[in-house]
Amino acid sequence: MKCFLVFLTLSIAGSFADDLQNDLEVIYERRLQELLSDNYNPPLAAQWRNQITKDGTWNDVDYTSGCPARRATWPAQQHWHRVITMASVWYYNRNDRLLLNKINLALIWWFDRDFTEPDCINAGGQDRHNCPCGTPGMWNTNWYGQMILIPGLVGNACLIMRTRLTDSQIESCRTILDRAYARIDGDPNGSMGPMTGANMLDVSSRGINLAIIANDTAILYDAISRYFNECQYSPGTYDGVKVDGSFMQHDAQIYNGNYGADFMRTMMLMFYQTKNTSFYPPQSVQEVYLTVINGSEWFMYRKNKEDDPLSPLVSWQYSVMGRMISHRYSDWNGIRLNLDTLLSATETWENHEKFQEIVGRLNSGSNVNPGGLIGTRFFPVSDYMVHRGLNYVVTLKMFSTRTTNSECNNDQNPFGFHLSDGVIYTYKNGHEYTDIYGAWNWYLTPGSTVDYGVNPLACNRVQFKGKESFVGGVAQGHAGVAVMNYTNPMSGSLGWLKSYFFLPNTYVVQYIGDIRSTSPTSPIYTTLDQRQLSGPVYIDGVLMNGTRVNTIARKVWHDRVGYEFVQPVNLTVDTSEHQANWPAIGISLGNETHSIFVAYVVHDLGPGSENRFDYFAHIDIELETFNNEFSSVRLRLERNLTESVDETVVRGVAYGEPGESGRYISLAFVTAGEFLIQQSDIAAVATDAPILLQFQYVSNDQRWKLAVADPSHKLNSVQITVNLTSSSDPIVLNVDLPSGNWAGGAATVEF
């Protein structure tokens, strides 16, 4: 029924029923030109033409198929990449019969070895189906190879060679494409469910190629309609675009930097290819697409370093790339979105100016923050906070009962269990974490608190739903507050509750209550950062000597980021070299050596000890300035002065001077209660439920803006009472909170 409704909208909006054949040819020409532009490379084509063997293969391509073949990025695909490059060059020189003959050799070799057992599509190597190990043909145990990878490459090659294919070759093209598209709603043998999210678009794209090769307008109509059906807000844990601009895949993981990037790119190309045809996207599709592009801009940063050949390059934040952080950056770089094509594809849309603004920002500036997108934004569906300043980007990745922490798939990211444990990345030049994952310690993820070594890290022990629902955040202007209640989802051995406050050039982490541990003999570490070493390290103002120091300290500074502790802590800093082992975490290769800066605090679990601590992180700060201040004079932690309320139920931070527009007060209520601040502008705040509050003073209007959010996603409303020092009468605010897909989002009031 969903598809029918969109079909009807398209028919009314575009009146395309009589023009499908013309549309098919227009789409074919646009797809063809894109393929030729991307793959035209005469030197490579000449090289591969000369190296192809008499049987139509290349000696340096790994043709291993079936059960022994590598599941991730199947190496045999290189056969088709070479065919496509050769075909692109042949297209502009169709008199080159030698090149045509070589292309035909390669086509014939694969088509003659195409598998014939349908169960090999998604059940290869499974004894209960009809494609056990040893079944003849070119197939992979990863369904992706038969549903998306090879059909996509075959379809592209067949499109380029469309006018010179034999009847037998056309039939082979159709067979490979048709059997994938026929399973878009699931495999008849029950081994695979319907395609969703980015995978739905990929298979629909194969359907469009099938329609062109078969000259079938009914398939074209169906495939494009599926595109538009998928570009809508998905609820709950379903794959796809969320109302907050995040994109989720593989059981509620934020994936804007991989599956989401594929989704955005594939949708963009479809919009471009169908521009000025009958297939005009409905208004709802345009809105959803703008939402995911807008959200994704917040998830980007720029690598900016003069001696790096890859800089400057807009890239995805590592926390939105999922398991793909297991790739070397050189194997997986950039955002993979052509911004010129994005503008052209949306040129006729009513919201085109919004796309222009986003592209303008991404194309401007030269530092880590493209276009100077400044502010703080929380994404409630994906439990993700982004804090952006003029010269920095900071991210916080959490997970809850609504989301999962990470994944290992196809042996990629086998040690990623701790990647969402309140992980904080700090980007200043964009190369802080470049290629570090092959060499770093996976128990010491930046910002996390872990019971070191308690949970063995392995591929089958990575992905878990969170155990706690009280995880969320709220942001307004240049400030935000978040809270994460954590219980180890694998063993339950560790628990903690933290609040996070983000303010200009600073973030603050405060524990709420003590750390809970059932493994008292295992050390508990809170990692400040683990990143590439860049310059000297100073501990309490003294230059660090050697590569490892363990000491009681109040401060540590490295590369213009300074960490300050409210009380002295047991600090370990290590700057030693570590050798990478990329094959151990994925498919990238290399064993280069990295000098890594890692700083972590060792918690004291002894009887009577206080195992929690609070700390500031000052970003882009000079060493001299950092050494001369304990904390910013504009920033102070707020302690509850109400004797009748346990201080552990609420945490707060005040920033700026009263009466200034840059004035922020951030409060995290873990239980209902009153917070007696005794500031010169706000004296006290009370709530009737656990809630997060972000106050911002607007001096021009002499009023307060208040953003309110429920981390549990369960409340319908909350009552907040604010006592201003300028008034004897309390201000009572009854705030209705977002629900449904927007649960956990912010409600904003002014007073």
TrEMBL record:
Per the UniProt entry, the signal peptide is: 1-17
Q: Which UniProt keywords apply?
A: Lyase, Signal
The Polysaccharide lyase 8 N-terminal alpha-helical domain is annotated at 140-280
Q: Which GO terms describe its molecular function?
A: carbohydrate binding; carbon-oxygen lyase activity, acting on polysaccharides
**Does the record carry DNA damage as a key word?**
no
The record's Gene Ontology biological-process terms are: carbohydrate metabolic process
Ranges for domain Polysaccharide lyase family 8 central: 377-607
Pfam families in the cross-refs:
Lyase_8, Lyase_8_N
Q: Which InterPro entries match?
A: Chondroitin_lyas (IPR008929), Gal_mutarotase_sf_dom (IPR011013), GH-type_carb-bd (IPR014718), Lyase_8 (IPR038970), Lyase_8-like_C (IPR011071), Lyase_8_alpha_N (IPR012970), Lyase_8_central_dom (IPR003159)
Q: Could you state one GO cellular component term attached to this entry?
A: extracellular region
Tell me its family: Belongs to the polysaccharide lyase 8 family.
The name under which this protein is listed is: Chondroitinase-AC
What organism is listed for this UniProt entry? Answer: Pseudolycoriella hygida
